[in-house]
Specification:
This protein is an alpha+beta fold. It is built from eight helices and five strands. The protein has helices at about 10-20, 20-30, 40-60, 65-70, 120-155, 160-190, 210-230, 245-260; strands spanning about 75-80, 85-90, 95-100, 105-110, 205-210. β1 (about 75-80) and β2 form a beta hairpin.
């Protein structure tokens, strides 16, 4: 069992964050019959959170300026054919890679030669979208870590607290929102502004979701499941104490016991 959060070590903070009527009422919400399966359910949620962390790490790799990471963690991929020769494109956060006529070129969005692969306006749009998507992807990854720890904290009755449930839901909502924001930012501001035809030819370009976006989409669904688990799993009855002087004393004593004091 993980140690209770620092806020519960201070009586005043414990009263405000853990023992207030709102938190106590909020902690009671859920399906009480699920408590007998608490360990299995919350550890499953922790597994989903861990998987989401791994999946969210891959898109961040796309910020690398090296060719192979850009291809491995591309947010958008594309195929085209020019004069009977197949061409492939990988769009990452830091630039674009083109494999055409047996030659592979990797260019930054800020490069003066970016418009040799796609038009100048698209380069600028994707550059701006990449900066925005990278920030939100990082924030989403950061919030996934405390969400994973909260899943572990709530896996036993002794470790579950009202504030932990609230914290798990809040971080889940933030993580879900930022992941969706990263996906929408890149698809709307970069993908939707990419040309339909390759350079000055009549050859169409077929765009598809890249590994990074696929990972983010899967991570989004995992976050939703984790969020639902926190909502339906109630805090144990003994953790739902009323906001009175007597119950406050019991709460402080319980926290001291957990801390081994």
């Amino acid at each position: 069992v993980l140690s209770p959060p620092p806020c519960c070590q201070i009586p005043v903070c414990n009263k405000c964050l853990e023992g207030n009527i709102g938190c106590v009422t909020f902690g009671k919400c859920g399906i009480r019959s699920l408590e007998k399966h608490r360990g299995s359910i919350m550890l499953f949620a922790a597994f989903l959170s861990a998987a989401a962390i791994i999946l969210q790490t891959i898109p961040v790799v796309a910020v690398s300026e090296d060719r192979e990471p850009r291809k491995f963690a591309a947010w958008i991929t594309a195929d085209t054919t020019v004069n009977g020769t197949k061409g492939e494109l990988w769009f990452a956060l830091s630039g674009v890679v083109l494999n055409q006529f047996g030659e592979t070129r990797s260019l930054d969005w800020n490069s003066n030669t970016c418009d040799e692969i796609i038009d100048k306006d698209a380069c600028e749009d994707c550059r701006d979208a990449s900066e925005s998507s990278y920030s939100t992807a990082i924030l989403s990854l950061i919030t996934a870590v405390p969400q994973f720890l909260t899943d572990l904290q709530r896996s036993t009755p002794e470790g579950d607290l009202n504030c932990q449930k609230f914290f798990g839901i809040v971080t889940g909502i933030i993580g879900f929102s930022t992941t969706i924001a990263a996906i929408l930012s890149y698809t709307q501001d970069c993908r939707d502004n990419l040309p339909d035809r390759f350079l000055n030819t009549d050859e169409e370009i077929d765009y598809e979701l890249g590994p990074a976006l696929i990972c983010l989409i899967i991570a989004t669904f995992l976050k939703i499941i984790d969020l639902i688990v926190h909502v339906i799993m109630p805090v144990p009855i003994r953790g739902n104490l009323k906001n009175s002087n007597a119950s406050e004393e019991v709460q402080v004593n319980e926290v001291k016991i957990k801390l081994g004091k």
